[in-house]
Design brief:
Elements lengths: L5 E5 L4 H13 L3 E6 L13 E4 L5 H10 L2 E6 L5 H6 L1 H26 L4 E7 L8 H7 L1 E2 L10 H18 L15 E7 L1 E3 L12 H10 L4 E3 L9 E3 H13 L9 E3 L7 H11 L5 E3 L3 H9 L3 E2 L2 H7 L7 H17 L3
Helix pairs in contact: 1-8, 2-4, 4-6, 7-9
The protein binds 2-amino-3-ketobutyric acid.
C-alpha cells in the first residue's frame, strides 16, 4: 500500500490549527505534520506523524521539512493578528509576509520535486478591507472581493499582499527561467475569514476577539468590558464552518476556481446583538461597553458583511451554522461543558 501524502499545518497550535488537526485526522487522507513556535499539546500529538516546534522564519528548518516529507498540501495558518500587529508592525510584516514567502518557496520546491502542484491553502481575512467611514460601510453593505481594499492595519496589508504573493507563485513565478514552460507551479487557494468563534479556545491578538471573549467570560462568570461600541458590526463564523471552508477549498477542482481569494460568510451581528445572545445563554453575564478608540476604529473599517456568492458558485460553499444554530447547538453547549468544573 502506498504511503498517504503529508499535509503540513503551520500555526498548528492556534485556534484554527487545533480544530483543523482533528478534522484532518478524522478525514484520514493525509498524514499530518505540524509546525508551531510552541509545542503541540499532548492531546493532538497522536493524531500527527511529526510535530515540530520552530519558527516559519527558519528557512533551514523548512528545507528539512521539505526534504523529509512528501508534502502535498500546506495549510499555512501561522500569523500575527491585527491588534498584535499594530503593537509591533515590523514583526507582523516579518511573520505574515516573509514567513509566507518562505512557505510558498518551500511548497514550490516540493512541487518541482514531486512534479505535481502542492496545494497551498491560506486563510486570509476580512482585515484586507479598509472602509473609510461608517457612512460608506453602511452604503457598501455586503462587500465583494474587489471592493474597499485599503486596509488600515499592518495585518490587513500583509494578508492582502500574501494573497497576491500566492497568486504570483501560482501563475507567474520564475516566468523568465529557461525551463519556465515545462515547470509546474504550486496551487494557491485562499479564503477571507470573518471573526472566528471557537468553543475550545479564546483567540489572542485579534480585533474581532470581543465576540469570543464576551462569550467565554460570561461562561466563566467573569465580567467583560467590550472594546467596541454596541452598534459595531462585522461578520463572524463558528469554527466548524471555518474548517468546512478550508476543506471545501482544498477539495475544489482547480479549473472551477476563478479567484485567488474568496469571501466566506455566516452571520453578522452587532456587538449589542452578540451580547443579547450571550445574556440569553448566561443570564448572569456582566457585560459593559468601554470602546477603545484604536481597536474600535479597526472594527469600523471592516465590512458589516461580505458577499460570498463567488465561493457558493465556484466551489459549493455554504455555512452549516446560522447564528441560532451556532449559539444553540455548538457554542453554548460546548462552552458550558468546557467550564463545567471551574
Ligand atoms: C483579527 O481580529 O485580527 C482576526 C481576523 C479578523 O482576521 N481574527
Amino acid at each position: 500500500m502506498s504511503k498517504r501524502p503529508v499535509a503540513l499545518v503551520t500555526g498548528a497550535n492556534g485556534e484554527i490549527g487545533r480544530s483543523l488537526i482533528e478534522r484532518l485526522h478524522q478525514d484520514g487522507r493525509y498524514r499530518i505534520v505540524t509546525l508551531d513556535l510552541s509545542p503541540l499539546p499532548e492531546k493532538y500529538r497522536p493524531m500527527c506523524l511529526e510535530t515540530y516546534a520552530g519558527n516559519i522564519l527558519d528557512r533551514y528548518l523548512l528545507d528539512q521539512l521539505a526534504a523529509h516529507h512528501e508534502i502535498e498540501a500546506v495549510f499555512h495558518l501561522a500569523a500575527l493578528l491585527s491588534t498584535r500587529g499594530e503593537r509591533d508592525p515590523e514583526l507582523a510584516h516579518q511573520i505574515n509576509v516573509e514567513g509566507t514567502l518562505h512557505l510558498l518557496r518551500m511548497a514550490q520546491s516540493v512541487t518541482l520535486r514531486l512534479g505535481r502542484p502542492v496545494k497551498f491553502v491560506f486563510p486570509s481575512s476580512i482585515a484586507v478591507y479598509g472602509i473609510p467611514s461608517l457612512a460608506e460601510k453602511a452604503r457598501l453593505g455586503r462587500v465583494r472581493e474587489d471592493q474597499g481594499l485599503e486596509p488600515i492595519t499592518m495585518y490587513g496589508v500583509n494578508k492582502l499582499y500574501a494573497e497576491h504573493l500566492g497568486r504570483y507563485f501560482m501563475r507567474h513565478y520564475r516566468a523568465l527561467a529557461a525551463d519556465a514552460s515545462r515547470s509546474v507551479r504550486l496551487d494557491f487557494r485562499s479564503v477571507r475569514f470573518p471573526g472566528l468563534i471557537s468553543a475550545e479556545t479564546v483567540p489572542s491578538g485579534g480585533t474581532s476577539d470581543y465576540g469570543p471573549e464576551m462569550l467565554h467570560a460570561a461562561a466563566q462568570g467573569k465580567p467583560y468590558s467590550c472594546f467596541v461600541a454596541p452598534e459595531a458590526r462585522i461578520p463572524f463564523m463558528a469554527m466548524p464552518d471555518a474548517i468546512k471552508a478550508l476543506m471545501g477549498l482544498l477539495d475544489a477542482p482547480q479549473e472551477k476556481l476563478q479567484l485567488p481569494a474568496y469571501n466566506v460568510a455566516a452571520f453578522s451581528p452587532s456587538a449589542a446583538e452578540f451580547m443579547a445572545r450571550v445574556k440569553k445563554a448566561f443570564p448572569g453575564a456582566q457585560i459593559t461597553f468601554a470602546p477603545d478608540v484604536a481597536r474600535a476604529r479597526i472594527v469600523d473599517s471592516w465590512p458589516a458583511d461580505v458577499d460570498d456568492s463567488c465561493a457558493r458558485r465556484d466551489w459549493g460553499w455554504a455555512p452549516d451554522y446560522s447564528i441560532d444554530r451556532a449559539f444553540d447547538e455548538y457554542l453554548v453547549p460546548a462552552i458550558r461543558e468546557r467550564y463545567r468544573n471551574g
